[in-house]
Protein: Macroglobulin domain-containing protein
Organism: Rufibacter quisquiliarum
Amino acid sequence: MQIRYSRISSVPKIGMLCFLLFLFFPIPGKGQSAAPVLEPFQLFAKSNLQEKVFVHTDKNFYLAGETIWFKVYNVEGMAHTSLILSKVAYVEILDKDNSPVLQVKVALTDGSGQGYLILPYSLPSGHFVLRAYTHWMKNTGADYYFQKPFTVINTFQKLGLKPIEFSTDYDVQFFPEGGDLVGNLQSKVAFKVTDINGKGASFIGWVLDQQNDTVARFYTHKFGIGSFQFTPEPNQVYRALLKSDNGHLITRPLPIVKEKGTVMAVSEAGANMLKVTVSSNLAYSATQPMYLLVHTRQIPVLAEARFPDAEGRMVFAVAKDKLGEGISHLTVFNSERKPVCERLYFKKPTSLLTLQVAADKRETGPRAAVKLSVVAQRDNGQPTEVDFSLSVFQIDSLQTVEQPDIVSYLWLSSDLKGTVEAPGYYLSQAGPEADIAIENLMLTHGWRRFSWEKVFQKNSPAPFFLPEYTGHLVQAKVVDSKTGLPAPGVQTYLTIPSRQIRLYGAQSNQDGVVFFETKDFKGIRDVVLQTNTRKDSSYQLETVSPFSPQNATLTLPTFDLPEHFYQNLEAKNVHLQVQNHFSLGNDTLPNLLPIDTTTFYGQPSRTYFLDYYNRFPTLEDVLKEYVSPVMVRKRKGKFYFVMIDEQRKETLPEEPLVLLDGMPVFDLDRLMVYNPKKVRKLEVIYKQYFHGPFTYGGIVSFSTYNGAMEGYEVDPKALLVEYEGLQPTREFYHPVYQSPEQIANRIPDLRNVLYWAGDMRTGKLGKKEIEFYTSDKLGKYVVVVQGLTQDGKAGSSTYTFEVKKAVQ
């Protein structure tokens, strides 16, 4: 049995974690002139640890009734090292209306965890979003959650698809480098054109002034993104005329031109330097510096101050070798520490993890063994230990290999707002065309994981959502039933009745919110929430969902299924029904883990197994006859207990904490009429007991035979609800065909996912051998591997093979 108290004091631990991280990332030297922006940023970064979550799923196309198998990787946001801050990940499926379809809580161990989602047969066909985050990540908002689109087809319902008409509704956005267009100051302007499905569209275009004169020309380069140079005139309004490949014309306005302001331009200055030019037409004095702060995922790289020349121009030099790999932010501040310009720069990572996947043969037959080898190496060729996940599934016209990979997600997508089309392209391709594409991408995604107002804010409030260090935090709210207002400072209890007794206590904060820090809370259980009704019975309690109420930020495309896919879909439908019929529930195997059964109070002073004693008709008789430390008394006709410290031979001043299967009992009159024949044992601590902010005159703990308080009438003022804890772990089931009898078995095997493993490790030698068996389904299959080392090196790999009819 465990009792734990949640406190805001957990937050300083996060600061210590960040501080330790900074020991590994030395901060560059700084002059006093840069201190006004650098020092607050350092303090902010040290106390605001960032998390990232990546989810690898077994595939990305499903039928209703199938199971999504997944693995969650949880990393620290700076170096992408495996993180032990959070012990729970929240994984959910949202439909096109952002309504949750399925939600599970997954246990994280050493920075990763595995789970599954069984798609109900009632789920309609369409595109959905799989979203994942931690409790701590909710402090920064939904833009930072992991999001992945996938498709579900319900073959038991009519698709009801409407003919898709050609749409001319394109989203066109313009992004001046640094943020603004300023009169008479040249700027590079990036743009992005996407269709109604969020995919990049190909266009050429012209920038026109109010006189319809063409002042700039442009064209999309890659994925609907491009850029052009442009010097706007003050008091002019500009618009863009765009022409698609099929000749369709659209017009969109450009951002408003500011009369006064500041712009920035980042350019290559040789192979190893960046030149940052800041231009302004504002009236700056010689004593008003401007600052440039450069950081890579909140690790400071450069902080310098410059004074504008007579033309309002400043030039900063940034050494590329000082930049961290991935995305860096370059922010320009005025003398009042207000950000006036900002843009991103991408340095392609070189220290990647190499995962080599190979099979003993490229072609094989049905029900045949496939032997895979996975080899992990660092960029220097040395073997390394890797935590990885592996999926083997059939690919066809409906099921493709396209999935977000962990490398492009950690280095690129997770640090950019919105959707990045084909993120793997930017890391896998090299050359001038790829360089232009990544530059345009950085110009169209100017954002950061924090606000500068918070950086420079003094005495910023503590984060509301605490990290889940040890287990799931059950959130509840205490309300004064008389006033309807939140009730602060109320002593509150949460009980999960069972043979492994769980009791948690906490005190409500100023908003009436209380967090119970649970441990080993798995599955759907009945829980009891209550306050001490003997002190005050005017409180109402309610549980609060731990899942984020914010909408997904991912744009789902219009659902469509071309007719030539129908034949393939019909075959998949038959295969699913046959497979489900013959699987007989053996598609998964439970993976049971040991549970800590230690009580929160440790070794009791006395233990009484009631079957060893004469049975008495009432609990009052039981206590009076042979439980000598506990005296039963009445006050104004109400029962209460007095505890005697038998070592000191004195009564304790406080009343003891009385428990029934871990649930606190405050109305002892209810307990004293309980049938003693249902009580298995009684444990007593006859010393004063301190736990968190609470003090008790010992403990009296009654335990029933089944741990479910059988026949006990719970106080009506308590809240009894069904609550879902962490998802119990299960293992993916795959059949074995080793003997001739197994191979000749007439039960059909129509699996399209041959193998899934979410908890694989290569070992220190960097190797792992895996064996699985093919099914009766012929076709092409792909092996997808995602992996991460303890120090944050990510890798991804694929391997294809084919199952044919007559292969020896």
